[in-house]
Amino acid sequence: MNSGVLDATARVPTQLDESINVTLNVGIVGLGYVGLPTAISLASRGHRVTGLDVSEARLAAIRAGEVDLLPSDLDLLGRVDTLDLTTEPRDLQACDAVIIAVPTPVDEHLQPDLRAIEGACATVVQHAREGQVIILTSTTYAGSTSDMLTEPLRRRGFTIGDDICVAFSPERIDPANLDVHHDEVPRVVGGVTDECARRARGVLSLIAPSVHVVSSPETAEMCKLLENTFRAVNISLANEFAEIAETLGLDPIEVVEAASTKPYGFMAFYPGPGVGGHCIPCDPRYLQWQMRPHGKGTPVIDAAMDAMAARPGHIVTRAMETLSDRGKGLRGAKVLVAGIAYKPNVQDVRESPAIEILHRLRERGAEVTYFDPWVDKVRLPDGTTMTSDVALRPEDADLVLVHTRHRDLDVEALEKAPVVLDATYRLAELTNRVLP
Q1: Which candidate in 95, 165, 196, 279 is catalytic?
Q2: Would residue 279 show up in a list of annotated catalytic residues for this protein?
Q3: HSE-up (13 A, CA, CB side) for residue 209
Q4: Is 25-216 in CATH node 3.60.110.10?
């Protein structure tokens, strides 16, 4: 892996179509959970990749191989020699194609935080040149490609579809998914013009088994919002069913797995402590935000997102009730939280319900510690930094709350705890567990 800067005068192919047989220089703007695997995939196929990120610390971690990747991607990272890392936006001028993959979170008011995507798009527009294909992949509102790329490029004098091409293709990377590698996932793309779609499809075909072309960037943008809103609504429903099942003395997981035997009309979603990561807690908020000025209600989505937001509070309430049933108050109780990443086997704590759970438990006077082999430190909403700690053994806690079941979780050790609140619903073998 190189760390130099490409020659901006290097030859650029003049034709880019669905049957690419030339070596390309592809710029990746943003080297996070989406951008870095994309960069590695392209570089492993012999294409020159210019990886641009604003964080020198992130680039240093990539060079050292100290990043959260699938084992196969981490192995490739150590072997590729066509990946150039830079913080200099001018290096994008040497690129045939530019893929934008930056975060699109929500702020503390659950409104879209567009600073990263607006900044990235402005940078790409500023350094764009004739012949490039620019593909936005960050999840955002319908119309964002037009607002942030197409119109600014036109104001610079470009003719879209003629001397430069613009498209939107939503990312579809699922971190830590060992069953479906990101290179095996079909992609959707919508171009501003037919020529834009054709050329963007050519780029994406380098790393995807198939590319489904839709009529416009807006359609592709809405496709991504539907994908993750669908998941948000169904996960909220799964949590609700879990509470219903528990009330009736039934095993929620057994119910889901029984329903999953139906070969049509059902898709399994499972309950848990809440939803984290960069997609499900955030993406539906972009849709809600965009509909409000139109006076268009989204009652199903609203109910699902409200229920999702309330889930960590429900877990804390169940912790209080569980301790109370054993004659112990939450204030002063020793609570050990096992796993705080938003999903198993990743370092990612973005939007993790565990952060709010830890914060609320501390607010109510509990003596809280956590253990997570994947997450050394975490910052709480009040500014407190907590560090993963193995000093408190399960048997020394008043309550163990299992938030994330990493593959190396010592389930046998949990049997020594007085009681385990199993927010994963996946520890049926424990004799001392209770469900949320």
Answers
A1: 279
A2: yes
A3: 8
A4: no
Are 57 and 64 in contact by the 8 Å Cβ rule? The answer is no
- What is d(CA 83, CA 220) in angstroms, rounded to the nearest whole number? 28
Q: What are phi and psi of 15, to 5 degrees?
A: -120, 135
Pairing mode, if any, of strands 399-402 and 334-338? parallel
Where the chain has pLDDT below 50, the residues are 2-20
| Common-topology check for domains 25-216 and 258-434 | yes
Per-residue model confidence (pLDDT) at position 7:
33
336 and 394 in contact (C-beta within 8 Å)? yes
pTM > 0.85 = yes
Helix 217-247 crosses helix 283-291 at what angle (to 10 degrees)? Answer: 110
Q: What's the CA gap between 155 and 141, in Å, rounded?
A: 22
- CA dist 182 and 195 (Å) reads 26
Q: How many helices (H) and strands (E) does the chain have?
A: 13, 15
Distance CA 97, CA 27 (A): 6
Query: Whose CA is closest to 335, among 357, 308, 302, 309?
Result: 357
Domain boundary assignment for the chain: 25-216, 258-434
Quote the CA–CA distance of 235 and 194 in Å, as a whole number: 37
Question: Could you give the residue ranges of the DSSP H alpha helices within 127-165?
Answer: 144-145, 151-155
Buried b (16+ CB within 10 A) or exposed e, 112-150: bbbebbeebbebbbebbeebbbbbbbbbbbbebbbebbb
Q: Is 167 helix (H, G, I), strand (E, B) or coil?
A: strand
Report which of 237, 222, 241, 356 is spatially closest to residue 284, judged by C-alpha positions: 222
- With the CA atoms of 33, 39, 45 and 48 taken in that order, what torsion angle do they form, in degrees rounded to the nearest 10? -170
Angle between helices 217-247 and 299-325 (to 10 degrees): 30
Sign of the CA dihedral with 9 first, then 15, 18, and 23 last: negative
Report how far apart, in Å, the C-alpha atoms of 263 and of each of 233, 237, 258, 304 are: 21, 20, 11, 26
DSSP-derived secondary structure for 34-79: THHHHHHHHHHTT-EEEEE-S-HHHHHHHHHT-S---HHHHHHHTT
Q: Where are the alpha helices (DSSP H) in 336-399?
A: 353-363
Query: Which of 13, 10, 9, 5 has its CA nearest to residue 52?
Result: 5
Three-state DSSP state, 255: helix
Predicted confidence at residue 1, as pLDDT, reads 52
* CATH T-level topology, domain 258-434: Rossmann fold (3.40.50)
Token pair 């990101």: residue: 182
